[in-house]
Design brief:
91 residues; 62% helix; 434 Repressor (Amino-terminal Domain); mainly alpha
């Protein structure tokens, strides 16, 4: 199954209730959680960036809540971290 088919299937079959928070707070929370999960696996930003084929600075900016990332990238990050995509949003 391709990544986009997986994402479509994932969101069609899993519904989540979330509190409404502003975008900046969301990005900060997502980034802090990503950093926590990455470190819990013993991975560096450099390792994650290399696995994803992106610059280290992109991982740093995501973790600091400076930039948003796509759901496709979130899925790829989850794959590298060997976690469910939903764990990236569980804070």
């Amino acid at each position: 199954m391709g990544i986009y088919a997986y994402i479509k299937t994932f969101f069609l079959h899993h519904f989540y209730c979330v509190d409404l928070i502003d975008e900046n707070a969301f990005l900060l929370s997502f980034g802090k959680n990503l950093r926590r999960l990455r470190k819990s696996k013993g991975f560096t930003q450099e390792f994650l960036a290399n696995e994803l084929g992106v610059e280290i600075s992109q991982i740093s900016r995501i973790e600091r809540g400076i930039i948003n990332t796509s759901i496709a990238n979130a899925s790829r990050i989850a794959t590298v971290l060997d976690i469910k995509v939903s764990e990236l949003f569980d804070w």
